[in-house]
Amino acid sequence: MQVAVLGLGEAGGRIAADLVAAGCAVRGWDPVRRPQGIDNAGSDLDAVRGADVVLSVNASAVALGAAVSVAGALGEDALYADLNTSSPQLKRDLAAALPVQFADVALIGVVPSTGLATPALASGAGAECFAELFRPLGMPVEVVGPRPGDAAGLKLLRSVFMKGIAAAAIESVEAAKAAGAEDRVRAEIAAVLGEPLLERLLTGSRTHAARRVDEMRAAAAYLEELGVEPRIVSAAAEWLEDLRSAVSDTETSPGV
């Protein structure tokens, strides 16, 4: 199977490497990253020409631009799968912009850790095709609906809970630190969530704050579309925005 991977960051790079290990012919494109072990194409158009499947693993902000850029170079029998965390409306816009079968794929897990074995939800006209191609490669794929956006929406609903827990854990631990009771409070939270999950919530929120801000904005828009006021989502987005700013300030401070 000829696979093009657009976006070779932590998630896309790991998936591309796993696809190579599974015996696929992989061409990747990323304007910044050129990981070893895969065929790095000279452009996005070079990456998708002749591909049976195109996997878009970019930031949601550039997902539509990436799709439009390569639309004219796609083979008529190609499958285009968007693996980005974004709003259901964006997934529908992507499907409308592409002249080939489209699969809305939502990855449920820590992709840099689990790669191709990450559980996935899929929807859209190309969902069944995506499942048939990627289940034998080790990806647990559940087809959840016929419309693009169905998979994205389910992931965002899950994210309301997960990012809400993360925001609550961060706030609780920060307050406990100020009160001189960090060890005690952290131990009590870990007794409920487990230390590995707590650590993932605390450190992951800082490491991936920028991406998760976009995710929470997409979740807020989806909840409003459903007629639900996004109170928790808004609070989580504020925390993540503060974390993103703090990380950015640290990275640009002299001597750091």
Summary?
The protein is of the alpha/beta class and 256 residues long. Helix content is 57%, strand content 14%.
Going by CATH, the architecture of the largest domain would be 3-Layer(aba) Sandwich
The CATH homologous superfamily of the largest domain corresponds to NAD(P)-binding Rossmann-like Domain
H/E topology pattern: EHEEHEHEHEHEHEHHHHH
Number of strands: 8
What percent of residues are in strands?
Answer: 5-15%
Could you estimate the helical fraction of the residues in percent?
Answer: 55-70%
Shape call: globular
Q: Could you tell me the mean pLDDT?
A: 90
Strand order of the largest sheet: 3-2-1-4-5-6-7-8
CATH top-level class of the largest domain: Alpha Beta
Structural class: alpha/beta
Distance between the termini: 45 Å
Computed Rg: 19 Å
Major β-sheet annotation: 8 strands, mixed
How many domain modules?
2
Poorly predicted regions are 249-256
Q: What is the CATH fold-level name of the largest domain?
A: Rossmann fold
Description:
It is a single chain. The protein has 11 helices and 8 strands. It is an alpha/beta fold and 256 residues long. The protein folds into 2 domains: 2-145, NAD(P)-binding Rossmann-like Domain (Rossmann fold, 3-Layer(aba) Sandwich), CATH 3.40.50; 153-252, N-(1-d-carboxylethyl)-l-norvaline Dehydrogenase, domain 2, CATH 1.10.1040. Strands 3-2-1-4-5-6-7-8 form an 8-stranded mixed beta sheet, sandwiched between helices. α3 (60-70) links the parallel β4 (53-56) and β5 (79-82). It is globular. It starts with a strand and ends with a helix. Residues 249-256 have low confidence and may be disordered.
